[in-house]
Amino acid sequence: MLRIPQLLLLPPLLLLTSAQELSCSSSGSDPCSVPSPGGLFVFRQRFEPDTGGDYGSWGIDGLEVLDCTSQKTHNSTSYAPTYTHEQIGSYCLKSPLFGGEKGYNDAEGEWAQSEVGEGVEEVWERTWNTAGRFVSTFDAKCQKKKAGAGAGVAEFFITLSKLQKTFTTAHLLSDADITPSDDTTYSLRELTNALSTGSYKPIVQCDNSTLSSVLWPLNVRGPFQSGSFEAASSFDRKSNCPSEGIIYPPRTTLATPKKSDDDEEWEHLRRPPPRPITLSHDETRMYYRSETAKEDPVGKLGLRKEHDEERDEWKEERAGKQYWRDEL
Ligand SMILES: *[C@@H]1O[C@H](CO)[C@@H](O)[C@H](O)[C@H]1NC(C)=O
Ligand SMILES: *[C@@H]1O[C@H](CO)[C@@H](O)[C@H](O)[C@H]1NC(C)=O
Q: How many CB atoms are closer than 10 A to CB 96?
């Protein structure tokens, strides 16, 4: 089934786009028309079993900007300044691209939580400073109008948000009946086949034998901020997963109970112990019960609710699907 990148396959101006060059297709590209050097991108998503609904969540882990031929990090020439997370937040909030605070919070919510305990703002800061500012089409001298401070920042993060919506990893896997499970393991071939659509051949990554992330190697036709992304024609990195017996880990904690007065007295019974919980089959990874809901500002709580509702719908859909299969 071809569930792809509709968003990115439908260029806004077909005529204009068909004339645009694909990054990494030649060495003499105009750095304002197409990212060059540094035209190979790796969009990374990471799985968090204890975030979101019952089936965990695939959030944005980051973006790599690579040199086309060496396929090493392209970070020798920067095209824009480094910024602090306060500056990045302010540029994004001011930009019409996010449509205000709700849009900005939604975009932040698409990111996986930092493994070293940074807030998402710090993760954005790191991503801009190590990747975004090395994209040549964000060079101030490429902008038609005189670019103010922060040019490119909002464009960079909104593009990552579009990529996240394009690569529907959880759905691609569940369409192939691959869901988080504590008694089923998967082969690398099964996972890779489920995620390969059209010419996209993502690379699956593991922590030991536990599925952890997916890498989507990409080129872009046109500027990073307005071009259309395509599967990279060449990318050398191999999966580090074993060929068989890959664990797609289920939740290790109970979902946060829905708040209601009746629930109050039961809450202490449902609450998991305040200690780290380890998966017996993989002692190297520890999972903590997510405390974020408590710290969330009101805006984010609203967001989470919406997200949960979406999840519920999806669960119903899945339940329907299973029922139908039982009947067969
Ligand atoms: C460039 O990237 C390499 C590999 O990720 C890293 O080790 C190095 O510190 C980076 N250099 C700069 C100037 O960011
Ligand atoms: C799992 O990971 C740990 C630490 O990263 C490592 O020491 C161990 O050898 C790995 N086990 C296997 C089976 O690869």
A: 8
Residue 31 pLDDT greater than 70, yes or no: yes
Write down the domain spans for the chain: 37-247
3-state secondary structure (DSSP) of residue 307: helix
pLDDT the model gives residue 143 = 84
Ligand number nearest CA of 247 is 2
Q: Which of 74, 75, 237 to mutate to test the pocket of ligand 1 (most atoms within 8 A of CB)?
A: 75
Evaluate whether 35 touches 137 at the Cβ level (below 8 Å): yes
User: If you count them, how many residues does the chain have?
Assistant: 328
Q: Which of 234, 224, 218 shows the shortest CA–CA distance to 20?
A: 224
Which residues on adjacent β-strands are paired with residue 186?
246
Q: Which residue has the tokens 């408590």?
A: 294
Write down the CATH superfamily of domain 37-247: Ribonuclease T2-like (3.90.730.10)
190 with 243: CB under 8 angstroms? no
pLDDT in tens, 81-95: 999 999 999 999 999
Name the average pLDDT for the chain: 81
Res 144: pLDDT: 77
Residue 286, strand partner residues: 278
Which ligand neighbours the alpha carbon of 240 most closely?
A: 2
Q: Does 284 sit in the ligand 2 pocket, CB within 6 Å?
A: yes
